[in-house]
Automatic annotation (TrEMBL):
Assigned keywords, A-Z: Membrane, Repeat, Transmembrane, Transmembrane helix, Transport
Record field: transmembrane: 29-51
Family: Belongs to the mitochondrial carrier (TC 2.A.29) family.
Primary residence: membrane
UniProt name for this protein: ADP/ATP translocase
Assembly, per entry: Monomer.
Function: Catalyzes the exchange of ADP and ATP across the membrane.
A single cellular component GO annotation: mitochondrial inner membrane
Top-level taxon: Eukaryota
Single GO BP term: mitochondrial ADP transmembrane transport
Length: 73
């Protein structure tokens, strides 16, 4: 169980939370905050795409970006 900051626990379990949120706030309340999470995903995809492009440019100009071999001999 997660620690609370002195506040009483609202829900007994995840199913109870699911039912209470739908009952009290409506189905759309389950998707509150989804836009912010989507923006985080888009930003992460942008970082990955940027890294891939920089890697291709580096290889084209002769830089070898080999991962280090961490093996025991």
């Amino acid at each position: 169980m997660m620690l609370t900051s002195g506040n009483p626990v609202k829900y007994r379990n995840s199913m109870h939370a699911f039912h209470e949120i739908i009952r009290l706030e409506g189905f759309q309340a389950l998707y509150r905050g989804v836009t912010a999470n989507m923006l985080v995903g888009v930003a992460g995809a942008g970082v990955l795409a940027g890294y891939d492009q920089l890697h291709r440019i580096a290889v084209r100009y002769g830089y070898v970006l080999e991962p280090r071999q961490n093996t025991m001999k």
